[in-house]
Design a protein that fits this description.
The complex is a heterodimer of chains A (about 325) and B (about 290).
Chain A: H1 2-28, H2 34-39, H3 45-55, H4 61-73, H5 87-122, H6 127-141, H7 144-158, H8 173-211, H9 214-221, H10 226-256, H11 258-263, H12 269-278, H13 282-310, H14 312-316
Helix pairs in contact in A: 1-13, 5-6, 5-8, 5-10, 6-8, 7-8, 8-10, 10-13, 12-13
Chain B: H1 12-21, H2 23-41, H3 77-113, H4 115-130, H5 133-144, H6 148-174, H7 178-185, H8 190-226, H9 238-246, H10 254-281
Classes of the chains: A mainly alpha (about 325), B mainly alpha (about 290).
C-alpha cells in the first residue's frame, strides 16, 4: 500500500510542477503590463519603470519563476497588485465562502443520489426505477445557473423565504452562522441538482453490476435480509466508481462555482479570479489557479487512498 | 468486470432497424432534429425581425403573435431562440471537431507507438485534467477577449484529452486482435493499419462520446455566454438571454423560462441520442435497464 501511495504522490507532485510551468508561462506571454494597468495609460515612462522594478517585473523570467515557486512552497503567494494585500489573505477570505458552499452541495447531492441510485437498482425495470432515472436524465440536462434563477424566483421572490443573493459573512454565534447558512442554501441546492443526477445514475449502474455477482446470490441464499445484502455487501463493492465520480465532482465544485457565484453575487474564489483576470492582477490569478490545481490533485490522491481502503486488492497489488 | 469497448460492425440494415426500434435513440433523434431544423430555418426565416427594436412592444407576455413573448427591447423571444440555436450548435460542433481532430490522432498514435509516447500522452492528459475545466475556459475567454471563436477554443481544448483517452483505449484493445495481426503479417505499416483497421472499429465509441461532448459543449457555451464571455450582442445566445432575463425575473419570468428550456431540451435530446447510439451500436456496452 505504501508503494502504491508513494507512486500516486510522486505523480501528483510532478503534475503540480508541470502545471506551475504552464500557468506561469501562459500568464507571462499574455498581453497587458500590470504596471501600466495600475497606473493608467497616461503614466510617465519613469513612473512605470519605478513601479515595475518595485514589483520586480524587470528581473529575468527564470528568477521570477523560481521566486514565485519557492514563495508558494513557503506559503507566500505574493501581494495582489490591485488589492495591495497578500494573496493568501484574499484567498482565505474567499475560501470561507467557497469551501462551505462546495461541502454543502456535495453533502446534499450525495444524500440524495446514493439512496436514489440504490433504490432504483433494487427496483430495476419497475415504474419507480424508470421515473427516478427519467428525472436523473432531465437533471443532467439542466444548466445549474438556470436552475438557480428558478430557485431564486420561487424561494426568494415568491415565498421570500431565503435571500436572493449576497453573503452576510459568518457572523457572531448561532444567529450569524444561520444567516451565512441561509445565504448559501439556494446556491448549494442549484449546484447539487445536476451533480446528484449524474451520481444517481453512476450509483445505479455500479449497483446493478454488483447485484449480478455470485456472492450476492450466496448472501441472499444463506438467508440474509434484502436490505442487509443491499447496504452491506453490494454498496461496499459498488463504491469504487461512485468514489471516482465524487472525487471529480468535489474538484469541480471547488472551482466550478464561478457561474453560481455570479448568479448569487457571492464573494467566493470564482469571483475573485474572475475579477483578478479582468484587472490583470496576474499574481492573484496565478496563486488561485495553482491552489485549485493543488487541491484537485489532493482530492484525487484522497480518492486513491479511499480506493485502497475500499478494495483490499489494491493494497497488495502493484 | 472489464468490457471490451470495441464491437464488430453488424450489417447496416440490421443496425438501422435496431436504431428505429430504440426508444431513446428515436426520441433523441427527433428532438435534436427539430432543434437543428430550427437553427437552419432561422437563416432565411424567423417569425419576427430581431434587428428591429420595438421598445413599445417590450416585455410582452405570451400571445399568438409572440408565442414566447418579447424581451426588454421588444424583440420576439422565439426568433431569438431560433437564431441562438445556431450559435450554440456551431460552438459545440466545432469544439467537438477540435477535440476529435487533435485527440483521435494523438490517442491512436500513442496506442500504436506504445512506450514513451504512450506514457507521455497519458501524463499530459493528467496535467490537463488537473486544471478546472470551466474556470480555465473562463480564463481563456476573459484573457483573449470574449467572443464565439475564443469560446470554441476554450471548450475545444478540454475535448482533446477526452477523445485522446477514448481513442487510445479503443485502439489498445484492438492491437492484440487477430485481424490486426494478420494485417501486420501482410506487411502493412502501423499508420496504415490505424487508418484502415483501427479507426473504422472505434468509430462507434467516438460517435457516442461525440454526442456526450456535444451536449456538454452546449452547456459550457451557455455558461460562458451567461458570464458575457461567449457570442457578443447583437448576436443572440441562450446564455446571454438568461443573463439579461435575470434582473427582470420578478416582472417577467417568461424571459428566463424559454431560453432555459431550449438548453434543457437540446441537451436532453443529445444525451438520449447518445444513450440510444450506444445501445444500438454496441449491445455489450448497453446500460442495464
Amino acid at each position: 500500500m505504501t508503494a502504491y501511495l508513494a507512486k500516486r504522490l510522486a505523480v501528483g507532485l510532478a503534475t503540480l510542477f508541470v502545471a506551475s510551468l504552464v500557468v506561469f508561462s501562459v500568464l507571462e506571454i499574455l498581453p497587458g503590463d500590470p504596471a501600466r494597468i495600475m497606473l493608467g495609460m497616461n503614466a510617465s515612462p519613469e513612473a512605470l519603470d519605478a513601479l515595475r522594478s518595485q514589483m520586480g517585473l524587470d528581473r529575468p523570467v527564470v528568477l521570477r519563476y523560481l521566486d514565485w515557486l519557492t514563495g508558494m512552497a513557503t506559503g507566500d503567494f505574493g501581494r495582489s497588485y490591485t488589492y495591495s494585500s497578500p494573496v493568501v489573505e484574499l484567498v482565505a477570505e474567499r475560501v470561507a465562502v467557497s469551501l462551505p458552499l462546495a461541502v454543502m452541495a456535495l453533502t446534499l447531492s450525495t444524500a440524495i443520489a446514493i439512496p436514489v441510485g440504490i433504490f432504483a437498482a433494487a427496483r430495476r425495470g419497475r415504474l419507480s426505477d424508470t421515473l427516478a432515472m427519467g428525472a436523473a436524465q432531465v437533471g443532467v440536462a439542466i444548466p445549474n445557473f438556470w436552475f438557480a434563477m428558478l430557485l431564486v424566483y420561487v424561494f426568494a421572490v415568491g415565498f421570500r423565504l431565503l435571500p436572493a443573493g449576497g453573503f452576510p459573512g459568518w457572523g457572531e454565534g448561532w444567529g450569524g452562522l444561520w444567516q451565512g447558512f441561509k445565504a448559501l442554501l439556494l446556491p448549494a441546492v442549484s449546484l447539487a441538482l445536476p451533480q446528484a443526477a449524474i451520481l444517481a445514475r453512476v450509483t445505479r449502474s455500479a449497483m446493478l453490476e454488483v447485484l449480478g455477482e455470485d456472492y450476492i446470490r450466496t448472501a441472499r441464499a444463506k438467508g440474509l435480509p434484502r436490505r442487509a445484502v443491499l447496504w452491506r455487501h453490494a454498496l461496499r463493492n459498488a463504491l469504487i466508481p461512485v468514489l471516482t465520480i465524487l472525487g471529480l465532482q468535489f474538484a469541480f465544485l471547488l472551482a466550478g462555482t464561478i457561474i453560481i457565484e455570479n448568479v448569487f453575487y457571492l464573494p467566493g474564489l470564482g469571483r475573485l479570479i474572475f475579477q483578478a483576470i479582468s484587472q490583470r492582477d496576474l499574481i492573484v490569478v496565478e496563486g488561485v489557479v495553482m491552489l485549485l490545481v493543488a487541491s484537485i490533485i489532493v482530492v484525487n490522491l484522497l480518492v486513491d487512498i479511499c480506493y485502497a481502503v475500499a478494495d483490499p486488492r489494491l493494497r497488495t497489488g502493484r | 468486470m472489464s468490457l471490451d469497448p470495441v464491437f464488430t460492425p453488424a450489417p447496416e440494415r440490421h443496425v438501422l432497424m435496431k436504431a428505429l426500434a430504440n426508444r431513446s435513440f428515436l426520441i433523441g433523434l427527433v428532438v435534436t432534429g427539430v432543434i437543428a431544423l430550427m437553427a437552419l430555418v432561422s437563416f432565411f426565416w424567423t417569425p419576427h425581425d430581431i434587428t428591429r427594436l420595438q421598445v413599445a412592444a417590450r416585455m410582452q407576455g405570451l400571445s399568438p403573435a409572440h408565442p414566447f413573448g418579447t424581451d426588454h427591447m421588444g424583440r420576439d423571444i422565439l426568433s431569438m431562440i431560433m437564431i441562438g440555436a445556431r450559435n450554440s450548435i456551431a460552438v459545440a460542433i466545432v469544439a467537438v471537431g477540435i477535440g476529435m481532430g487533435l485527440g483521435v490522432p494523438l490517442g491512436t498514435w500513442a496506442a500504436a507507438r506504445g512506450g514513451w509516447a504512450d506514457e507521455a500522452l497519458m501524463r499530459v492528459n493528467d496535467v490537463v485534467f488537473a486544471f478546472p475545466a470551466l474556470l480555465t475556459a473562463v480564463m481563456i475567454t476573459a484573457i483573449f477577449g470574449p467572443g464565439a471563436v475564443n469560446a470554441i477554443i476554450a471548450i475545444g481544448i478540454f475535448n482533446v484529452p477526452v477523445f485522446a483517452r477514448i481513442a487510445r483505449a479503443g485502439a489498445l484493445s484492438l492491437w492484440p486482435r487477430e485481424f490486426i495481426l494478420a494485417a501486420r503479417a501482410s506487411g502493412k505499416g502501423k499508420a496504415l493499419i490505424t487508418i484502415e483497421h483501427i479507426l473504422p472499429n472505434i468509430v462507434s465509441l467516438l460517435l457516442v462520446q461525440g454526442t456526450i461532448q456535444f451536449a456538454l459543449g452546449i452547456l459550457a457555451e451557455a455558461g460562458l455566454s451567461y458570464l458575457g464571455l461567449g457570442a457578443q450582442p447583437p448576436m443572440p445566445s441562450w446564455g446571454r438571454m438568461l443573463f439579461e432575463a435575470q434582473t427582470r425575473m420578478a416582472v417577467a419570468p417568461h424571459l428566463a423560462l424559454f431560453p432555459g428550456l431550449a438548453i434543457v431540451v437540446t441537451v436532453l435530446g443529445l444525451n438520449l441520442l447518445g444513450d440510444g447510439l450506444r445501445d444500438v451500436l454496441d449491445p455489450r456496452l448497453r446500460r442495464e435497464r
